[in-house]
Amino acid sequence: MRRAVLLGSLLAACGPCGFQPDPGVKVVVPAMPSTLDWSTSDPTSWVNYPVLLATMKGLTQLSERNEVQPAIAGRWERTLTPEGHERYLFHLRRDVRWSDGATPVTARDFVLGFRRAAVGKERTDTSDLLGVDEVLSLLERGAPRAEVDAAVERIGARALDDWTLEVTLSHPRSYFLSRLANVYLFFPAPSAFLAGKSEEEIRAYYDRPRGGHPVSVGPFRVDAWDRAGERVRLARNPASAFAPPLGPGERPVEVLTLMKSEVGPALYDRGRVGFVFVDSPVALGSGRFPDLTRRELLSTYFLAFNTQRPPLDSPEVRRAVAMALDRDALLAGLLPAARPTGVLLPPTMPLSATEDEARRLPTFDLAAARALLERHPEARGRTLRLVHTARESFVPETAIAERIRDQLARVGLKVEIDARSDFSSEISRVAPDGFRAHDLYLKRLGADYAHPNTFFTLFERTGNHFTGWEKLRGGEPLARFQALRERADAEGDLEQARHLYVQAQEVLLGEEVVIAPLYHPDRYFRARPELAGLSVDPFNFLSLGQVRLR
Amino acid sequence: MIRLALSRALRQLVLVPIVALASYFLMAALPVPTEEEAKRQLSPELVESYRRDLGLGQPLGFLRPWEKLVRGERLGTTAQGVTFEEMLVKLSGSAGVGLVGLVLSLLWAAAFALLRAGSGRLSRAAGSGLPALAFGTPAFIPALLLAPAVVERGHLLPELAAALVVSIWPGVLLGTLIAEALRQELSRDYVRTAAAKGLPRSRVLGRHVLPNVLPALLDSLPPVATALLAGSFAAERVLGLPYFGQLYVAAVLQKQVAVVVVATTVFAALLVVVTLAVELARLAVDPRAREAAE
To answer: For residues A234 and A55, is the Cβ–Cβ distance under 8 A?
Structure first.
């Protein structure tokens, strides 16, 4: 008995020993951040978004309907300079402070952030700013540091005073305000805290959180980051001007931990985490989660054609394929809900096509598809190779690929499916016959910001579309597409811009049939009912900025 | 006697710098960002930081990790590295799991040896079936089975689960060795003589047989300790334990050369300590070892 008491005492004393679970709300995320330095970012930036969107804020933000609204900038004016540049004058709110509670966010913070972004790992994303092209070319040819620094000083971001920021773009860009809301390269950098630090010290400042640093602007700040343990702990930022308003009976979340786990769904079932993504088609199809929530993404899943290799070098054959696909049947029963489509721009995207305009694009019409293929008997002679990504995803790729194969068999087309773990390199591979090795591939395109431009950049001449459409008719259709898009980007009148984007979409989908959009994917997750505001944003990022406890 | 144990441990100790050098050159052989990539992706400061971390282009560059250690600098690149103290804290977590795993392995071994010693059909079936099951099941599978019940529970539950998971394979291995050694010893003449003289079976086992079996057990302890520590890496990941295993794997993937070199060396040194402890135990329990020492 005495031994049992002694053993029990030892075990009880060891209660607080070892690794203890973090306090507060816990959410399971698919990946940990690669950096917290939002100004320089990282090529795998998607992993950083949940943390950075919870801790930082830009000049603008998006409404529920994805429209641009003021954030740190209370208002702004847009002008065109005589040289054809677009100039924004942002007037900053004076009540926005860094998380130390004392230091105001000033125009100088934005200037520093923009300048650091112009030489960061994703610097090409800032190329709309006047002067960044020069910085990029200097970096490309390995110019001396002093020369690069001098060019960076000249980029189109100036603090006229503490509260007025002047931003000049080399050309008018109607999507710029949308990008400011989402793309974290445009968030402010805490100039007062970074002053006098070397580049390595700045990296350590961001990536080794301690003592309340790095400071933040959003509702949270990063309190700790255990890389080995794959955990990021966020603490509430009481000084934030962007804390979510509390409803009756609600209170703020003081500590929030993002963690990776191999058994996330099981931990959610046992009540030990408050949020988990649900991606498995089996789990989604089981219908056993009453708390399953669906979030519509600004995203499109499409079938792309190799427009160079016969028989898909014929626009009629591509059109026939696009019209042979019954999108409703492709997705029936695979997901709790689905949004089949024939358009590239999701209807929830600002400036997207109206229903009438969408109807002008190829839609399901089996008889018309068969009639088109009658004129191209060679199309039925060769087996088409359909490539898709071989990895677990919230898009049921294998099932969709199999259904496409079956649906195309109805019009006499033979398809073989190739699921690849090296998908990106496979669709860029050139076969010995000189054509790209695929005939068709499946891909999901997600918006980076709430503007049509984000969907069109993939299909530009330098985009990684691997469809070969840049060579169609000597490149004329693509040139027309780019001209329409550029005119739309520069257009100040939104309705006129929308009209031009719709025309560009018609060139891509209606006239040349480079891709056949299939559906707009959604993301599913489970969140505890006591956690209000915990969601996924339209860009497929975990959204923590509005979270509070009921 | 202790001098002999120390001399043997010192011989093992020679392996430690060899391990350190080997780990350095292996890590240095991993592809690092080229100049072309550096222009596109990495700032010159970061590339320089990698080169400093590697000791590339410096005479005696392989001493760079130790230079960092002596100076108290962060091992690895500034932002992503760890201090030696942080590494030791994480290692103590993994070593604790391994130590508990070792105790559990011995318990498994004893239980399995007793099971094999039985003469029933069940014992025979278990004696041949259990090793196949234990050796054919990677540690992460039982870890995944236990994970939902213990992850985020604290109070040492994940640690105990990790120890339990990593102890199965070594436990059955040790049990197999002990059972075989027991079988051989029990068939010797002195056992029959002792039994014929009327000594109780427990006394024959405890006083005469087990001391002869223990050396075989001790011989297998160092590789078992290695297996326990290495096995804990997979268990730590599945059970969400932020200890040495996770740090080590992350450091290799991120090419944190200084972290890998120092961690590997500390790991090797730990195994030398285990070997020393085993040598001392052998000298304490095995008269033949003492005679050889004298």
So the answer is: yes
